[in-house]
Amino acid sequence: MNIYDDLERLKKLLDEGAITREEYEREKARILSSQYTVNPTGWDLGIDEKSFVVLMHASQFLSSFIAPLIMWLLFREKSPLIDRTGKDILNFQLSYLVYALGLCLTCVGSVFLPAIAILMFVFVIIAMVKAINGTAWTYPLSIRILK
Hints:
The longest helix is centred in the middle third of the chain and has 25 residues, at about 80-105. Helix content is about 70%, strand content about 0%. It is built from seven helices and no strands. By secondary structure, the chain is mostly helical.
């Protein structure tokens, strides 16, 4: 709950006659004087954005693109950083999927496929370290599918 929700709920109680005007004014003063934090960005997940971005990058180890996709779809409107990171991760995963499929269709695929897997692993770790340091980083060789 935030301050606006509490004030709205209090006003509804007054309008319904559940509380008197005096009780309303007393509770309103208590609410307005308490230690509420108003978050204009809407970010209210209990962790900071930087930690969430690190978690998005790390979730690739568990489910490739599924977990980052879900995280991005749920929280992209709450933060421009989350939106940009989600797009970068999805572009990375889709690009490297295209590369891997392309290599599988050629004779050299069996030689380079392990190299792509190692690069993906290393790039995710680099992205996590960059996110921990607060630095924006775009995955190398990513095709900009989502802009």
